[in-house]
Amino acid sequence: MESATNYEYSNMRRAVNGSAVLTFGLQRTYGKVICIAQNKLACRGIFYGDSPFKFVVPVFLAQLALGSFLTSACYFFLRPMFQTAIVGQILGGIIAGSSVLGQNEAYKEIIFPPKSMQLLETLSLFGCMVFLFLVGVRMDVGILKRSGSREWTIGILTYILPQLLSFPVSFLLHNYAHEHTEVDDQTDIRYRDLPFVASLTSMTSFHVISCILHDLKLLNSELGRIAGSSSMISGMLSWINIILVFSFRQTLKGGFGLVAYFKVLTSLVVIVILMVFTIRPLLTWMIRQTPEGKPIKESFIIVVFALLLVCCFLSQFVGQSAFFVPMVLGLVVPDGPPLGSTVVDKIDCFVSYVMLPLYFLVMGEQVHVLGLKASTWFAVLTVILSATLGKFMGTILPCLYYQMPFRDSISLALLLCSLGVVDVQSYTRAQQLGFINSQSFSIMCMTVPIITGIISFTVKAIYDPSRRYICYRRRTIEDIKHHSELRILVCVNNKESVPAIINVLEASNPTKETPMSVYVLNLFDLVGRASPLFVAHDHPQNKDNGSFPNFNSRPTYTQRIINAFRIFESNNQGTVYVQAYTCIAPYATMHDDICTLAADKCTALLILPFHKFWSHEGDLADSAGQRNMNKQVLAKSPCSVGILVDGGANGKPRSIHESWAYYRIAVIFFGGADDREALIYTFRMADHPNVKLSVIRLVEAKNGPTTTTTTTVDFDDDYSFERKLDADLINEFRTITMMGVGCDRLSYTEETVTDSSDIKNVIQSKNDCYDLILTGRGHENSSQIFKGHSEQRKFPELGSIGDMLASNAFKNMVSVLVVQQHTLTGQLNGDVSLNVEGPSLILDIFSSNRRQ
Asked: Which pLDDT tens digit goes with each residue over 161-184?
């Protein structure tokens, strides 16, 4: 072929599946190939007279930027309407394609010249392949084993019913068209597409459902767990069907018999078996070579990426879609840390927001919706809607049979009707194989963002995971009797916070008269996997080895944390019961698991570690995800919440068994429900023989800022009632101290303050005197004295006094527990039955102490 400065066309044989690799003799058709002169790849620059848009590389970079910008912009503007990423990505591709901006010929010649399409299509396919590989890495195949009869029933019916409904509809439309219209070749092809449209739109993909659940923040909800398991079952059946049908179509188009067909399928099965029994053990060996808590070697990551490229080649080598084998490889890679999470972290952002938009850019260029006849729209949409109705019915019927709430059943049925990138890829492949024409393809691609957009908005509007843990009675320490069991849920997201938590639990003074149940929830961010996990660990009493924990020769990170609490339980046999759980979920939705467990166990207090903590290297670490999680728990918790700020020992390692000689506890009391909750909690601690309790009451000066009031009588009554409860509680405590009961361990002081600076001075003077300081969270609505500090707070979730304490905690090696009392939101004061037995609780505590 002679060299040319322009682009010349010549006829050339090309494979049906778009590649020139070996396809076991499948038919090759005639197409066109573009010849590009070697000196027309890279531009020398405008100063040398070269136009960038006449060269392949600059045009590709412009396409890359355009695709990334449009898809991100669409998602940004649609996100407030609860739309998922796939909706913005497809709409961005359609806007950039031939149906919108592509109507301008100048734009089309600049952005999509024929010379650039080969490079654009190749890299877009590669980006989509890597994306589906990453989704496979996140998947936990083990959910198939954990799926119950409900999930299997939903999964099977969502595969069968859509086809039972859509296939008859497609054949009826096809027969009606032949009987009532003048059928030309083009119309005949369009109506012969309908059965294949029915088959394609009946499929369900776990990849799609998982991405939508992630975008809607429903992954670790009960709805998300059922949707994930059911979609994996249905998706597995759908992919088996697609592989068989697509491979058979290739064989028929080539004019070959069943020998070539079975060669393709056998080769595919052999590749999958080799991946499971060779690559999986290799990857498991890599994980075993990585010390716990350490990052995996870069060389291992390179091996994984090399295996990905080899699998992409093998998929095309045996005549299959380039997407299938990489998806299987993703399933073979162990999900979660250290390997799966590292692979995802390395390339997820680049692939999802830079490479994947290229795929939708190519799709948008192939979508032509303008000029389509109304009859075409009607026929294709009717089949699509019938398949969607089949999915809906296949989900909601078993849900109602298993007595799921009706609203949850509707939400689950809608979720399993969602469409996404895997569906678009299947439509593209079907068009290449001649199952559907460009008209059907365009309409099917247009329905993806429409259906998914409607579903996303509807599900977000009608489904609220927090409904599971809404309480209709208060669950607080104030509302439980002294001689009753205290149930506490403690959350642990790093081993450094364990000693401080156990110190608080030990100070809570569990006895036979006042036993304590502790529910330990280990929290792990969901990285490198798509399926959240919630595990209840066996209690040693359920085994034959007694209640003391067993220590393995190489305990895992989680086991070491659990063993610490088991030791605490063993040291308090008969008074403390510990049950451990592990939760792996995204920080954005982790509060659902926390609040659900708190509601199920009827806990009175939920202790969360502060988002700032000392790392094992001695540095002050920070977790933005944990901070957002704490805020969500504070807003939705079904019980009282305490945020524990561990001042630690300036980052030095500490033993779990610290000295209990005079464990000094202080309560900074200004007033209000949260302060009362903190104070009553310390009354339980005060019964411990090695605890010294100091109550520091902040009294607002009479000439200080006036108290916040309103003109309504209800507020005045509520404010007066709160003040009366505060006064009764404090007066009773003062009476006890003056009576001499435990006077060596109890003290009461008052500090007069006029503004927030006075409060800071009081806190700074007391910080070095105590090991643990408790205070309430909410003070801002009770006095104007905090108005100046409210604008300067670094940690608003701790309240004003908590913010001041936390700012000094890490300097003075003191732990701080900021308490928020559970309230029944939306109810008036008259509807809430407040427990006013606080004073009698104090007398009960110290009278029992005197008897001892």
From this structure: 999 998 888 888 877 766 555 544
**DSSP string of 330-375, one letter each residue:** HHHSPPSTTHHHHHHHHHHHHIIIIIHHHHHHHHHHH---TT--HH
Residues 259, 254: Cα–Cα separation, whole Å: 12
Residue 281's contacts (CB-CB under 8 Å, 6 or more residues apart) are: none
Give the number of other CB atoms < 10 A from CB of residue 389.
Answer: 16
Q: Which of 47, 53, 70 is nearest to 113 (CA)?
A: 53
Residue 827's pLDDT band, with cuts at 50, 70 and 90, is very low
Interval 7-50: pLDDT, tens: 333 333 333 344 433 333 334 444 556 666 655 666 777 777 77
Element housing 169 (H / E): helix 149-180
Instruction: Tell the CATH topology of 10-463.
Output: Na+/H+ antiporter like fold (1.20.1530)
Is residue 400 within 8 Å of 406, Cβ to Cβ?
yes
How does pLDDT run across 664-676, given as a tens digit for each residue? 888 888 888 888 8
DSSP element (H, E) containing 30: strand 28-35
* Beta carbons of 278 and 303 less than 8 angstroms apart: no
Q: Do the beta carbons of residue 616 and residue 496 sit within 8 Å? A: yes
Question: Which pair of tokens denotes residue 828?
Answer: 């008036």
* pLDDT tens-digit map of 715-758: 455 557 777 887 888 887 777 777 655 567 788 888 888 877 78
| CA 588 to centroid of chain Cα atoms | 6
Two structure tokens written together for 740: 């001499």
All CATH 3.40.50.620 domain ranges in the chain, comma separated: 473-548+555-655, 659-852
Residue 185 has pLDDT above 50, yes or no: no
Rounded to two decimals, the pTM is: 0.74
Homologous superfamily, domain 473-548+555-655: HUPs (3.40.50.620)
Mean pLDDT, residues 588-613: 87
Residues 6+ apart with CB under 8 A from 774: 665, 666, 667, 668, 678, 679, 681, 682, 816, 817, 818, 819
Find the farthest-apart pair of alpha carbons in the chain and give their distance in angstroms, rounded. Answer: 109
pLDDT digits (tens, 9 = 90+) for 384-420: 999 999 999 999 999 989 888 888 899 999 999 999 8
> pLDDT tens, 104-128?
888 888 888 887 888 888 888 888 8
Class of domain 659-852: alpha beta
Give ranges for CATH 1.20.1530.20 in the chain: 10-463
Neighbouring residues of 622: CB distance < 8 A, sequence distance ≥ 6: 611, 612
CA distance between the termini of the chain: 104
- pLDDT of 700 above 60: yes
| pLDDT of res. 7 | 35
Nearest to 140 by CA among 307, 341, 419, 411: 341
In sequence order, what DSSP letters do the residues of 477-544 get, joined into one string? STTS-TTS-EEEEEEESSGGGHHHHHHHHHHT---SSS-EEEEEEEEEE--S-SS-EEEEPPPGGGST
Judged on CB neighbours under 10 Å (0-12, 13-18, 19+), 41 is: middle
Average pLDDT of span 771-786: 75
Provide CB contacts within 8 A for 697, sequence distance 6+.
669, 670, 730, 748, 749, 750, 751
Q: For strand 691-700 and strand 486-492, is the pairing parallel, antiparallel, or unpaired?
A: unpaired
Per DSSP, what are the bridge partners of residue 693?
A: 665, 746
Residues in the chain: 852
Evaluate whether 132 touches 422 at the Cβ level (below 8 Å): yes
**Helix, coil or strand: residue 193:** coil
